[in-house]
Amino acid sequence: QVQLVESGGGLVQPGGSLRLSCAASGSIISNNVMGWYRQAPGKQRELVAGINRAGSTNYADSVKGRFTISRDNRKNTVYLQMNSLKPEDTAVYYCNQNGFIWGQGTQVTVSS
Known about the structure:
The protein is 0% helix and 51% strand. The chain is mainly beta and 112 residues long.
C-alpha cells in the first residue's frame, strides 16, 4: 500500500521560506510522477509543481522562480522549497503520485 506523508508546513511571514517534505512508502518515487498541489479555501485544488521519472520539472506560472521541486532517491522523499512566499500562497499543500494517490496535506499560512 502506497502512503505519502507530508511535513514542513506552518506559519511564515511574507517574503519568508518553507520547505515541504513528502516521504513515500510502498513505492519508489523515482519510478513515478510526483507532484505538489495546493487548495486554498473556496478554491479548486491546483497543481503547483511536478517532477517526472526522468527528473524533468514543471511549475505553475504563479510559483515559477520562487518554488523548486526536487527529490532524494536515497530517502525516497520529494521536497518543495518555497521562497519569497506571498499571502496568496496560503493553502493546504498535498503531495501526489501519478495523479491519484494523495497525502493528507500540510497547511501553509503566509501572514504578517
